[in-house]
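Q: Got one fold?
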Amino acid sequence: ELAQDTAWLSRLYNNLGLMHDGLGDRTQAMSWLLKQLELGRRLGDEQQEATALHDLGFLAVGTQQSRDYFCKARELFYKAGDGWGVALSCLNLAEGYIKESDYEWALQLVDEAMSIENHEGEAVEKAFINQTLGNIRAAQGNYDKALEHYQTSLDFTSNGQGDDNLTPDIYLEMGKIYQKLGRLDEALAYLHKGLQLAEEMDFRVVI
């Protein structure tokens, strides 16, 4: 009973953290996720600890602390036997390296994510992997290859297998590429579609 109660409490802390983040209250979000992290450490629950660290990585995105959170989450997900968690941590770490133009490290992390057997979130993982590969190729200026990866990611999300939360970003990234290629009609269509989906999902979007 105690294990069930603490697992429920840990999920509650996590949900409260994510809800406050969705409302734009980063301070409260971090407070609840730190509570989840503390509870996981106290209980020796590597899965809950890893989940809290992974979500803290999102809150600190763009900082060295974010990378530290994702690295530690990846390590603990490995220990907990959670392949899906490992893959997500790798892909989020890769995004940080893309921003630093360190594409070699980013690709190594994508390769690591691809090497993990994951049946639970396989379609979502493939969508996320292709989005990340698209981001790498776009940053390298290989726009044709980037568009291929983005379209593959969209194929996974549009048929209900993937994560709809990825979709607005993908449309927006494709729109920006079409703009760079001078294909303005397609650029406008994709940018408008991305914004429409983002508004429907109540996302905060930066173009």
